[in-house]
Amino acid sequence: MKKIWHWLLEKAKKDMRTDPFATPSRRTKLSYYFDNLVSMVFYIMGIYLMLMDLYQELFTANHTDFLGTALMALVLLLGGLLFRWSAYADLKAINRYQHYLKQQSIEQQQELRREKITEKILNSFEYTSRFTKTKTLYQFLFLATFINCGRFSDIKNVDPKSFKLVQNKYLGVIIQCLVTETKTSVSRHIYFFSARGRIDPLVYLDEFLRNSEPVLKRVNRTGNSSSNKQEYQLLKDNLVRSYNKALKKNAPYSIFAIKNGPKSHIGRHLMTSFLSMKGLTELTNVVGNWSDKRASAVARTTYTHQITAIPDHYFALVSRYYAYDPISKEMIALKDETNPIEEWQHIEQLKGSAEGSIRYPAWNGIISQEVLDYLSSYINRRI
Asked: What is the pLDDT of residues 142-199, one digit of tens each?
């Protein structure tokens, strides 16, 4: 009896856990039917014992310990009630677990659909662009806006001389660059990092640097002093027009054919949806540099504005080398031999290499030699 009570108590503790991020326990219909059966047995035994005790007390001369027998009948009825509650808890747990499986299926379908959308857009540029350079620019622009949750202007106005390597807890080394001229008037960083599968930003960055040349920065008379000191920018100003036309003309989805539908901003929408699905909506404003606070021209030239740091686990999640565990709120490494953390834990190992100067001659002397060497070495190892 003591073991039964202990088992029921442990079961009650598990059912009282209401953590929405916890994976619900799996229950079977067999447990539900068993608890119902035991509940009925306890009810029948308790009622029978109570009736027999009352009958002997009132209608026969054989008087037994009425109080003790009644107490035993009450215990049996209470046990039946507890097992009935256990059966109800089993039914709730079964429904909760089925809802969890359905939700997991929906999330997996959404993630697969997002990958399909991304690959369809990349393929539309791959198969419809007449020139290799055009295809490279369009694919690079789309992927850069996607992984950085950024606008076209954020990618276009990147200062090529600001490219540098930074350490990342999960990916070893990633590429960081700065853009000071943004729509929110707040400087931000743009990142390129290794990712599993076809959607690898470093692969598209490599193709972009091999098939493009530096673009002279147009002087912005209304901008801040830091943007006027910038000599080069990453993309041409008129690229967004041809990019939008290409998406509309060869629309992989009907939404791109809408006159004012999302085109150059589709990457931002996809990343926002991705972060929302993962329960990381709070990262959207940080990654996308979305802010309603616009600094005045005097404040921009007089005061220093700190750039909000993007947490390391964002890059781990987008790279798909890791999965996010909502219970422990930590990143779990997936088994993948191509995870760059094993090879690129230290930037110092790149010193002395000159591969980047040969592979990217147009950008030699503009982008840091260290960055060019790292990217070239990464591509050679990946191939």
From this structure: 999 988 988 888 999 999 999 999 988 888 889 999 998 888 788 889 999 988 888 8
85-92, Cβ contacts within 8 angstroms, sequence gap of 24 or more: 86/8, 86/11, 86/35, 86/39, 87/32, 87/35, 87/36, 87/39, 89/11, 89/12, 89/15, 90/27, 90/31, 90/32, 90/35, 91/32, 92/15
Number of H helices and E strands in the chain, helices first, is 14, 7
Residues forming beta bridges with residue 332, ordered by sequence position = 323
CA distance 215 to 158: 11
Give the containing element (helix H, strand E) for 331. strand 330-333
Check if 303 is active-site.
yes
Question: Which of 283, 109, 310 has the alpha carbon at shortest distance from 193?
Answer: 310
Per-residue confidence band for 111, with pLDDT thresholds at 50, 70 and 90:
low
Virtual CA dihedral for 250, 255, 261, 263, nearest 10 degrees? -50
Give the integer Cα–Cα distance in Å for 360 and 209. Answer: 6
pTM: 0.66
- 3-state secondary structure (DSSP) of residue 166: strand
**CB 3, CB 44: distance < 8 Å:** no
- Catalytic annotation, pick one of 303, 314, 360, 374: 303
